[in-house]
Amino acid sequence: MLLVNDLKTWFPIKAGIFQRTVGFVKAVDGVSLTVRNGETYGLVGESGSGKTTLGKSILRLIEPTAGSIFYAGTDITKATKRQQGELRRHMQIIYQDPYASLDPRQTVGSALTEPMRIHRVVPSKAEARKRAVELLRRVGLNEEHMFRFPHEFSGGQRQRIAVARALAVDPDFLILDEPTSFLDVSVQAQVLDLLKDLQKELDLTYIFISHNLSVVRYMSDRVGVMYLGQLVEEAQRDDLYMSPEHPYTYYLIAAIPVPDPEFKKVSHILSGDVPSPVNIPPGCRFHPRCPYATEKCKMEVPFHGESSDHKVACHYDIDFETETATPRYDYLPQP
Amino acid sequence: MCILDVRDLTVNFRTYRGEVKALDRVELRLYPHEVLALVGESGCGKSVTALTILGLLPQNAYVLSGQIIFKDVSLLTISSDQMRRIRADDIAAVFQDPVTFLNPVLTVGVQLEEALSLVQDWVPYVRVRDESSSEASSYNIKDYLLRRNPPRTEGSEIKAPKKMSEKVTREFSKNILKLVQLPDPERILTQYPHQLSGGMRQRCMIAMALARRPSIIIADEITTALDVTVQAQILRLLRELRDTIDASTLLITHDLSIAAEAADRIAVMYAGNVVEIATTTELFRNPLHPYTQLLMKCIPDVRRPVIRLESIAGSVPDLIDPPSGCRFHPRCPFATDACRSTKPIIKDVGSDHLVHCHLF
Amino acid sequence: MGKKTDQAYLTRGETQARIAELKYALHLMRQNRLVLSGSILVIFFIILSATATTIVSPDQAFDLNFSQSYCWPSSIISWTALAATCPQGSNFLLGTDGFGRDLLKMIILAIPLDISIALTVVTVATAFGVTVGSVAGWVGGKFDEIILRITDIFFAFPSLVLALVFAALFGRTIQNLTIAVLLVWWPIYVRLMRGQVLVEREKTYVEALKSLGVKPARLVLLHIMPNAIYPILVQMTLDIGGVILTFSALMFLGFSPDPALPELGNLAADGIGHVFTAPWLIVFPGVTILVIALAFNLVGDGLRDVLDPRLRR
User: What pTM was computed for the model?
Assistant: First the structure.
């Protein structure tokens, strides 16, 4: 349903009296992925990885700098304003912060009916209100909540309202940008289950963006790991978690605290800080923090195999148990 | 025997809509040299507990009843000056967001020196070689933090000057930063908070807390704002520090997994009550309180694929009008009539495992 | 239930929700004593303005009697050695002015004039400032730059000078003087609103609404404006006192259209020339201006306190 081809979103850094562009923040720097109908694609990364920018670029809330995005066959990077308006109906986004994504001066009912009326999903005001009430009930709230203001609700409830609002226009595709990061664990479980149910019921396609790998494991069918603006690994969910191939993925999974005090943690912990996309290291972007890095990694950028279902951007095939790295021969030039 | 004893603590907040009964007869004990995790979701009262211990409650809050005994001093009855003294050198706090808690216009070095100047008892650990130049020859940070005896000055009695020179303070600051595993401490001392990453800032805050050699460190959600890999580093730091320093840590978090990794004992809170306390291994092996059990089922475990997450029915109660009896009864699958009418009392079920529930 | 009753219920629900919010705001304001007294005073002044003409007939302004000018009723309180005492039998509570009119009655007549001028200036300035400011803040770019420079030009002039020049050029009528004061006042509202719109524009809910397909016009009018308007409301109340002061200053400086016009500044201006013989002429009108300005200021402060922390909820 969705095909992203070599997408780049760069933000110019302006400096000096004349505001000349001195550099770029390469938030998204060449990402290609496909999302199939009805599946959930998990997008994982830490801060600075560009995952949120990627999500917003797909929706063109942030304008991509280069590359193309094909939605249901059409290239939406080339869409006109009018087509964009229509597309808004099909592709929606749920934000991370439930306290900021709703207009504080707008009642819940109005927040739900407004998009319906704009996109003419329903014929009349009365119909809009009826549908709003139905949506509220579907996400687990009541009719009386129609007349309340956002600040009267808890975080979990606000996210449900955001979900109801996104569903108001009857979309096919949702980008979920860390929808449960700000929520408590028990509330998170409720919201995630709700999202899963809705996906089945309404045949929705999701891109689930999160830094929480446990949650991503629960929600996704396929997972892509982003680091500094690029995808470093992409695989079927269980494949990624059971046998990660990229060292970053491996350490990311190893870093997650596990609810089991007797679980022996991996002795290696990734050193260094999460880098910023302003100064991107040459060659493989991960090499400054990678314990397996070689000279080659500092100079050449790796790319992943075209056809396999498990793609890795690494020069080496690493066995994490024995800590040995063997070079890959996927893309050596033919003699 | 215990360093901090919270007994029967009840704290209310006065608000427009009524009195919020934030803490309801909370009981906690913190022993020396341990890490106690206070785990709970938002609104359970864990931060309020920390603020009460520190004496930093907002104006509309008041302590209805209870005691907090810290090293034989009752914290709730002493004057604010005395409390400030204790905050300065005996109970240190590290909070979630170092951006707001570090002064943005002062460099890290200046702030660390400020923390060091509040407490002068690190001075004896500085060995002064030459009287004329206050260049100290070695600093035994670990000795200092473990409260071992200060190194004896060799040769004649050279007294360390009353106020240490800048150089000496800087050396000591560098060593403390090294202790929290900050690379290149010399440079960090000259930088401003916004120039550092989140993980580094958090380490600076920990360093500032350690510099005062406190008996208790209260860490309130210190890793919540950090990335996963950085969080892992900080947690490992805490584990290593536990053996290095002579302090107990009260680790406040909403994440049971973090508690599993970093804590010796865990206290689970819900709606202003401590519902269960046990050692970490015991709690995970044998969770007794229904809330603890349900909470554990909510957490997706990255090691196994999960078919469906269970959630806890209902939502956190409004503490202005909390449920009668046991506050968890509306959401508890095992609630009985007794649960609805009377508050449960704490029961010791053996092996240091305390539960606040009628079922036991 | 029929469709109509459903609809009615749902619309009623919306208004009820907003009324409840208002009630909460009012409650918060009532809690602060200073704000409460300010509000009571404001209400008092408004009622007084509405009923002034019934208390004192406007003809009284024309009832000139020079024989009893500049006199103070009782000889018990003697202001200065030179102050004259009114003839026996006259019941002037606050003395008389240069035209022999009862000062108290003139003040009562002056209050509605001043307050209505202040309200006019503030309302028009706000209406204009809010529209121009929001467009400038939202659209940005060249238009924004132009508006900013224009406001800068107006700011460069000391306010009184600008008003004086306008009054001198176009003649001294109350309307012209009101316009003069308006000219001084509008730039602040433009800048304020622009600043607020800039802040709101970056917030997540605006992006969320954009993603839902809400067009910019609707976004600005129905979403950004209601959120951005709070500091403006506060500024409005604070400015009422300011406008009265400016207007009175204009009168004071001799720009009054008619020396006998019952206006607070005008009355005080008369007193300047008679400081030693009739000091009450400056004192009482001055105190009235002070109290009006103070009352509105207190209400403005209360508004600011109420609106800020509540939004943080």
Answer: 0.80
